[in-house]
Amino acid sequence: ELEKWLVLSITGTYHHRIHRTLGLPPITVFEEALKKDPKFIFHPKNSKNFFIDFLPVYKRKLQRDGFHLDHVVYYSDALNSYILRQRKDQIYFLRRDPRDISLIYVLCPDSDQYLEIPYRTLSWPSITLWEHRQAIKDIKTKGEQNINEQDRKSTRLNSSHQIISYAVFCLKKK
User: Fold this and answer.
1) Sign for the pseudo-dihedral over CA of 17, 50, 94, 99
2) CA-CA distance, 104 to 64, in Å (whole number)?
3) For residue 156, how many other CB atoms are within 10 A of its CB?
4) Each residue of 1-34: b (16+ CB within 10 Å) or e?
């Protein structure tokens, strides 16, 4: 909802109001620039890579069982060749969308392309980074020191169940 509101605020309101510095609405300035030079608009060659390039970056070493990021292990068979031939000090650049942490994007050092690497446990549902952090916080509150993936999943599902139950209770109350 926030994303939708932000896009509508910028494209629907901001771009159509007179800008103090420009003296014109930004959309008018944009359209004039486009008339002068049709190549003014940059079109990325690969829109998916363009999107991925804006995601948060993490630096990690590749372990035998995949990449470890925030108590989650990511693995795919596509990593096997990298696991077999990696150097000890090899660092990989990972990217992850905080709205769905079920997948990471790994920049391949030999091709400058991204590999999509899912959770090691494929049956797990997609969750946001904020849900994940809350689940980790709940686990730590219970006194657990060693956090494993199964704990996080059960905590998140219990948390989701409580939220759904409360929503149903509120709807029935009306």
Assistant:
1) positive
2) 17
3) 20
4) eeeeeeeeeeeeeeeeeeeeeeeeeeeeeeeeee
**Cβ(58)–Cβ(64) under 8 Å?**
no
Structure confidence at residue 151 as a pLDDT band (50, 70, 90): low
pTM, two decimal places: 0.68
DSSP state of 134: H
Tracing tokens 């159509």 back to the chain, one arrives at 16
Q: 53-88: per-residue pLDDT in tens? A: 999 999 999 999 999 999 899 999 999 989 998 888
Token readout for 158 is 């219990």
* CA pair distance 102, 128, nearest whole angstrom: 8
